Amino acid sequence: MAVGALTAGPAWGETGSDAGMIGIRLMDAPEVRRHDPRARIYIVDHLEPGTTIRRRLQLTSTSPRPQRLHLYAGAAAVQKDRFVFEADRKPNELTTWTSFDKPEVTLPPHGSAVVRATIKVPRTAWRGERYGVLWAEAEPRTGSGNVHVVNRVGVRIYLDIGRGGEPPTDFTIERLVALRTPDGRPELQAVVHNSGQRAVDMSGTLTLDEGPGALSAGPFQVSQGISLPPGGRGQITVPLDRRLPDGPWHATLSLASGQTRRTAETTITFPKPGEPPMVRLTGIFGTSVSLTPGNGALAAGGVLVILASGLAVFRRIRRSANDHPGTS
Question: Is a pLDDT exceeding 60 seen at residue 50?
Answer without folding.
Answer: yes
